[in-house]
Amino acid sequence: MHFEMTPDQVELQRMVRDFALSEIAPAQEQMDRDHDFPAELWRKWSDLGMAGIMIPQEYGGSGIDSLSYVIAMEEVATVSQTFALIWQVHVLVANMYAGLGTAAQKERWLPVFARGEKLAAFGLTEPGAGSDAGGVRTRAARDGNDAWVINGNKIFISNAGTPISDGLVVMAATGDRPNGKRAISSFIVEAGTPGFKLGQSFSKMAWHGMDNRELVFEDCRIPAENLLGQEGRGLSQALGGLNLGRIVFGILGVAMIRACLEESLAYAKGRHQFGQPLSSFQLTQAKLADMATHAETVRRFVHYVAWLHAQGRECHTEAAMAKLIGTRLSTQAALDAYQIHGGYGFMHEYKVNRLHRESKILEIGEGTNEIQQLLIARGLGC
What we know:
Elements: H1 7-34, H2 39-47, H3 66-79, H4 81-100, H5 103-114, E1 122-123, E2 139-142, E3 147-158, E4 168-176, E5 182-189, E6 196-201, E7 212-223, E8 227-228, H6 234-270, E9 272-273, E10 276-277, H7 282-310, H8 316-341, H9 351-359, H10 369-379
Parallel strand pairs: 1-4
Antiparallel strand pairs: 2-3, 3-7, 4-5, 5-8, 6-7, 9-10
Helix pairs in contact: 1-3, 3-4, 3-6, 3-7, 4-5, 4-6, 6-7, 6-8, 6-9, 7-8, 8-9, 8-10
């Protein structure tokens, strides 16, 4: 087995790390202050070709594989989980277009996504349908042969309300199956479509700078050709896209652990108690050792799962494992980092305060960890 990155991956990692430290880090501080979408940072990021990192080259993208994407994601997320997630949602939706879209849909949307001119969003979650994705109540009904009419509400939808948000993919029920479950389909809803309204945004404890809001559909009429993929197959299509998302959440966990380790190690070496640096005390050393071990272990596993994905191999169970272990251990790392910092961890001026606020939501987003456990159990034949 080969564990070395390719020269291209090493160069990508170096480039992203340099950009993250010079551009994303100060923008993260600004986002924490004003809570605004980092439009200028997104433009610079797109100019590097990163908005279209996995979009095929024929549509203006970079055509990079899943593993290279995950390597780059770690460097971004170590500096800013917020910007990493803005990017992650955009890439996830662009991949849906690339995998499911018609020739016309790809020609219309992939080039503008690749250039970063438009920011992609995915509307699945509803007030009564989170982990129960099959419980979607938003409905789309045919209006003759040339249109669909959508009615319903979505909630906590990322990237949907920025000045450049467009090409929203929304999930809606289009009928009922013989077993009584809803048939779910995917639709493209353009910004400014009559009947499509942006609802309330939310005051969050973290991820400031990432737009998360309610979406409202009231007799929203879209052309029939805005169906994305097969009618009635939207849920399985969405879950296929979420597979890569779960791998990414695994590396977001690694990045969180790494950031906690970097901050805690520096603090522990510089902070003295009882005439000694905190790093000399064994209880502190144990926490730091756990962070280092967990980051390295989970990174290796997530890289393996990303490689499986890049090879087109079945990896649903492994993706759930990556998400479960990465986010669970990152929550523990954030708690330990907070403990090492003591009272200073309570202060907004210290980075670990933000890391602590960001950590728990990783166990909930992209499918709760309880759902990941059920998926893993299903893979075991339970």
